[in-house]
Amino acid sequence: MDNQVPVMKLEGVTKFYGEEIKQQVLFGIDLELQPGSFNAIIGQSGSGKTTLLNILGLLDKPADGKVFVEGQRIDQMPLSKLASVRNRTIGFIFQFHYLLPEFTALENVLMPGWIRKYDKDPERLQRAHQLMDEVGLEKVKNNLSTKMSGGQQQRTAIARALLNNPKIILADEPTGNLDTENTEMVYKILRKVNREYGTTFVIVTHDRRVAEGADRIIEVKDGRIKMDVAARV
Amino acid sequence: MLPLKIAWRFLVSSKGQTILILLGIAIGVSVQVFIGLLIQSLQISLVDRTIGSSSHITIQADREDPVILQTDQLLQTIEKSAIFPELKAVSPVSETPVFIKTGKSDQSGFMRGFDFQRALSVYEFMNTLVEGDLPSKENDVLIGTDLKNELGLKVGDTLNVTVPAFILGQRPLTVTGVFDSGIASLNRSWLISNLVTVQNIIRKPTTYSSIEIQVKDVFSADTLAETLQKELEGKPFKIKNWKAENQQLLSGLTGQTISSLFIQVFVMISVALAIASVLIISVVQKNRQIGILKAMGIKDSTTSMVFLTQGLLLGIGGAVLGVILGLALSWSFATFAVSDGEPVVPLVINYSFVLLSALIAIISALVASIIPARKSGTMSPIEVIRNG
Questions:
Q1: Looking at the partner chain, which of B2, B295, B382 has a beta carbon nearest the beta carbon of A118?
Q2: Taking CB atoms and an 8 Å cutoff, what residues of chain B touch A52?
Q3: Alpha helix stretches (DSSP H) within chain B
Q4: For A109, which of B23, B62, B304, B356 is 20 to 30 Å away at the CA?
C-alpha cells in the first residue's frame, strides 16, 4: 500500500480567511490519502475541517503549500482547468443533499457526465440507471428531486457523485440531516461502493458511529491535525 | 447544449417569474411596435395628403412671360434623363387665372389644363370625380362641388370665362363633371380642363405653363430635382421641389420621428433594465444550483452561458409575444379608431421595422443578461457550501 501513489496529497497547506484581519484557519497541514481508503475527518465547528475538505475538493486554493492529485500538482492550475480535474476526479456528497430541484433524480445523476461532455451516451445512461438501482431508487428515477424524501435525495446525491467514476468522494456530513435508519442505509452504501469500486472516501462527520466505522480517523483541531489513527485494523 | 438545457429548466421551474418578465418584454416591444407603426403611418398619410396628389418637382419657365416654349424638346430631355426611371409621372400643365361670368358679378377662378393621360397618376381625378366624366374635347371643363353649388350649375350646363389679358373675349365651356378635392378653396376656384382648351384661351398653343413631376420616392425629390437642374443647365427653366416648399412640414416630420425614437429608446432601456434586474435576482435565487454545478466541475464560462441563454430565450419569447401584441394593438387601432367609416390613421405595416424592433429587443435582452452572467461566473462554489 505504501508505495502506491496517493490519490491526494497535501504538503504544508495553510489557509487564511478575512481581508483586513487575517485569521489563519489551517496551519501547515500534511496529509496523504491512499487509494481505496475510507477516511473520516472529525473536529469541532470552526476547527478548519470544512476548509480542509474544500481544499481537498479543489473548491478552494491554499495560501501556501502544495496540493497533488494522483501525483500531479494542481494548486497552481487555472480555475477552468481545476473545474475539469474536479469533474473527472472528485465526487461530492453534501449534508443538505444539494440536488438541482429543476431536474429529475435521473437527470441529477447524469449531470456530472453532461458537464464532462453533453451528449446522449447510452453507456452513461445505463450506468446512471445501474447506480440508481444499486442505491435503491428504482421507483423514483423520474421524480423531481423536490418530490423525494431526504434519504432518497441523499442516495441520489451518492449515485451522482459516482457517475463519473471518481477517484475520490468527499462527503460533508452526509448523514447529518438523516434519521438513524437512513443514516445506516447511506453508510452501508458508501462502504459498499468503497469496497466494490475501490473509491477513496473522505467523510467529514460528527457522527461517532460513522467515524468509528472508517479505516482512518483524522481529527482536526485549531487548524492542525491533532490525531491521525487507523480505526480498524 | 448543456447551458440551453439548464437555462430552459431554470426558466420553466420559476414559471411565475418567467411569465412576468416575458409580459414585461412583450409590453415594451408592443409599445415600440405600435408607436413606431402609428407614427410612421401618420407620417405616410400626412405626406400623402399633403403631396400625394400634387407635383413633387415642378419645372417652370424662367422668363418674364412664364410659358415654356420648347415643349417637345423639354419633354424629350426629361425622358432621356438618368433620373427618368425614378419618376412616376411627368405631366405638362397649362394654366391661367380666369373670371367666371355668372351674370350678376364675375368670380375669379383658376383654370388648369392637363394632358389627362399623363396627369391621371399625379391627380387622382377619377377618385375625386363625384359626377359626370373627365373633359374629352376642347372647351369641356370640370368644376368643384362648391362652385357648382354657388352657381347652381349641373353637368351639361355652359359657363363663360374670360382671361384678364383678353377681357372682352368670352369663351363658353361645357361642364362635363364635378370634382371634390377635399379642399374647399380648390373646389370653389379650380376649373379643370384639357391642355388644348387652356392653350387656346390664353392664345398660346403648343406652350406649357409648367411641367409637373411625381417621383416614386417622395423624399428623394430634392436630389432628383438637383440632377434635373444640372441637365437643364443653361436653359431658361427653374425647378422647384416639394421639400424646398414644405420646410415646415418636413421639420414637423423630423420632430415627430425624433420624439418617437426617444420614446422607443426609453421603452427599450426600461425593458433591458427589467430583464437585467430579474436575471440578477435569479442569479441570487439560483446560487445554490450554481454552486452545486461548479462543485461538479462546470466551467465558469458555462454558468455564464446559462444566464446569457436565459436572456436570449426571454428576449426571443418576449419579442415574439410583443410583436403579436403590437400588431394586434395596431390592427385594433386601425379597425376601431375610425371617423366616417375611414380609419383615423390608415395603417401601413412596415415589416422590416417590426422585425428590427424584435431584433433590438432580443439584443437588449442579451446585453442585459451580461451583468448576471458575469456575476454567476465569478461566484465561488465554496460560498454556497459554507452558507448551505
A1: B2
A2: none
A3: 2-13, 15-51, 71-80, 116-119, 125-128, 145-151, 184-189, 195-201, 221-231, 242-245, 247-285, 287-295, 300-336, 351-368, 370-378, 381-387
A4: B304
Q: How far apart are CA B56 and CA B61, in angstroms?
A: 17
pLDDT attached to residue B204: 82
Per-residue pLDDT of B72-92, as tens digits, reads 777 887 888 777 888 888 888
What would the grid cell of residue B376 be? 454567476
Q: What pLDDT was estimated at residue A1?
A: 47
Give the whole-angstrom CA distance, residue A171 versus residue B133.
97
Question: How much of chain A is in helix, strand and coil states, percent to nearest 5?
Answer: 35, 25, 35
CB contact under 8 A, B297 and A86: yes
Look up residue B81 and give its amino acid.
S
- Looking at the partner chain, which of A60, A96, A115 has a beta carbon nearest the beta carbon of B388? A96
Tens of pLDDT, residue by residue over A70-86, are: 888 988 888 778 888 88
Q: How many CB pairs under 8 A join A and B?
A: 76
Rounded-to-integer distance, Cα B384 and Cα A188, Å: 28
- pLDDT score, position B318: 92
Give the distance from residue B305's alpha carbon to the nearest chain A alpha carbon, in angstroms. 13
Which residues of chain B does A103 touch, with a Cβ-Cβ cutoff of 8 Å? 9
Interface predicted TM-score (ipTM) of this complex, two decimals: 0.87
Q: Note the pLDDT tens digit of each residue in A151-172.
A: 888 889 889 998 888 889 998 8
Of the partner residues B5, B295, B380, the one whose CB lies closest to the CB of residue A92: B295
Contacts of B374 (CB under 8 A, 6+ apart): B304
The CA distance from A160 to the nearest CA of chain B, in Å, is 9
Residues A80-131 have pLDDT tens digits of 788 888 888 899 888 775 788 999 999 999 999 999 888 888 989 998 998 8
pLDDT at site A2: 52
User: Using an 8 Å Cβ cutoff, are B139 and B173 in contact?
Assistant: yes
